[in-house]
Amino acid sequence: MTDSTITSAVIIGAGIFGVSTGVQLARRGIRVTILNDGPPANGASGRSLSWLNSARMRSEPYHRLRMAGIDRYRTLSARSPNADWLRFDGGLTWDANDASNEIEAAYCHEVSIGYDALRLSAGEVAHVAPGVDARAITPQGAIFNPGEGWVDLPALIGVLLEEFAALGGALVAKEGAARVLVENGRAVGAQTAAGNRFLADAVVLATGPAVPRMAEESGQTIGDGTPLSLLVQTKPFVHPLHAVLNTPRVAVRPAPGGTFSLDADWAADQGVKLRPDGGYDVDGSVVDALLAEAAKVMEGNPKLEVASIGVGGKPIPGDGEPVVGALKAIPGYYVAFSHSGATLGLIVGELLAYEVATGAEHPMLATFRPERFAAR
User: Fold this and answer.
1) Do 234 and 141 sit in the same domain of this protein?
2) Is residue 342 part of a domain?
3) Where is the domain boundary, 286, 313, 340?
4) How many domains does the chain have?
C-alpha cells in the first residue's frame, strides 16, 4: 500500500541519494524507475572519501541530520557485521602548525554538543589509532572521534540495488543522460538521450554536481559551490591503519581489500584541469605528491601505488548546507544535492521518500529547502 496518491516515481541518478531514495519508495509500494547515464555510482558516489562523521563546526540542523545519518549506518552495520565495506573504527584529525590550527576550538565545540571526542598528544595516538606516524602530528595534538567510520559507496549502492530489484524497481542505465519532463507547469517524468519517456507521478533529481544546472533548465535556482575533486585509490597492501585520517595535507581512508582512498583539496586544485570537451586532465606529478603525503602520515611510510584515479565535480551547495525536497514552483519535482553524501546517504533517501510518498514535509529538512535560493 502506498501512503498517498503517488503510485510511481522516476529518479534521475544512480548515486547514493538516488538509489537510497529509490529503495525507500519501493519499500512503500511505489513503482520506481531509476535512470542513469552509465553504471551505478559512476559519478560523485564513485569518487567520494565517504568518511562518516559530524566533526567540527556546522549548523545545528545540519549536525542533527548527519547524526541521524550515522545512526542509520550503525543499524546497517549491526545487520551486516561481516561487511568489509562499512566500518566504525574512528576518525583522527589534526591541523597545520600555524595560525589556522583550530584543534582546541574544535575539541571544545565537540565536547559541548556531546560528540564523542578525545584530545590526544602525538605520543598517545598509537594507543587508540594504530598505524599513524606520530612524527607527522603537529604540537597542538589531534582529536580522535571513536564513533566515526567509513563506507564504500559503490559496494553499498550494489547492495541497495539488489533489494531495489527484488521489490520490482527498474534501473535503466544504457540510454544516456536523462532530463526532467515538465508539462503544464508540472513534472511528469523524464526522457533519456535515447528518446524514451518514463512518465511518473513524481520526479527526483539526484545527479550530484549536475543538479543546479539541470534545475536551471526548468527555471529554478540552486546555489552551486561545486569544486573539482580528485580521489586516488591505492593498490592493496597490509597496514595496521583502520581509522580515517584527516590531516593538513591529505585525507586517508581504509577501503575494502586492503586498499586506501586518498584525497586533498590542494591536489584537486593543482592536479585536475577541465578540458574544453568536458573531460579532465590529471597531472601525474601531483598524484605522486599526494601519495607521498599519505605515506608520511602512515606508520612505516609505505610505498603507495595507484590502482585508480577518480575525477569530477564534488557536490557542494552554494551555502554549504544540503538542498533536499520539493521544488515548490513545479509540483512533482524533487531534488537531493549535498556535500557529505556518504554520511547523509541513507537518511536523505529515507526522509525524501517520506516527503514524496506522503506529500508532507519532514521537520528535519525544514532549513534545507531549495526555495531558500530563490528567495535571494
Assistant:
1) yes
2) yes
3) 313
4) 2
Considering the domain architecture, whether residues 129 and 229 belong to the same structural domain is answered as yes
pLDDT of residue 4: 57
DSSP codes joined into one string, 24-55: HHHHTT-EEEEE-SSSTT-SGGGG---EE---
pLDDT for res 105: 98
Query: Grid coordinates in use for 213?
Result: 544546472
Contacts 24+ apart (CB under 8 A), 73-82: 73/149, 73/151, 73/346, 76/346, 77/149, 80/159
CB 137 within 8 A of CB 299: no
Within-domain flag for 126: yes
Instruction: Find the CATH number of the domain harbouring 263.
Output: 3.30.9.10
Domain extent for 324:
8-46+154-222+319-374
Among candidate residues 266, 291, 313, the one where a domain is terminated: 313
Is the separation of the CB atoms in 215 and 222 below 8 Å? yes
Residues 192 and 288 occupy one common structural domain = no
Residues of the chain under the 50 pLDDT cut: 1-3
pTM: 0.96
> What pLDDT is stored for residue 375 in this prediction?
62
Q: What is the CATH number of the domain that holds 168?
A: 3.50.50.60
Angle between helical axes of 60-79 and 341-358 (0-180°, round to 10): 90
Decide: 144 and 129 in contact? Cβ < 8 Å.
yes
Residue 228, SS3 per DSSP: strand
Q: How far is CA 61 from CA 22, 57, 66, 267, 367, in A?
A: 24, 12, 9, 31, 7
The cell for 137 is 602530528
Rounded Cα distance between 262 and 254, Å, is 9
* Reduced DSSP (H G I as helix, E B as strand, rest coil) percent helix, strand, coil of the chain, to 5: 35, 25, 40
3-state secondary structure at position 205: strand
Closest CA to 48 of 285, 274, 315: 315
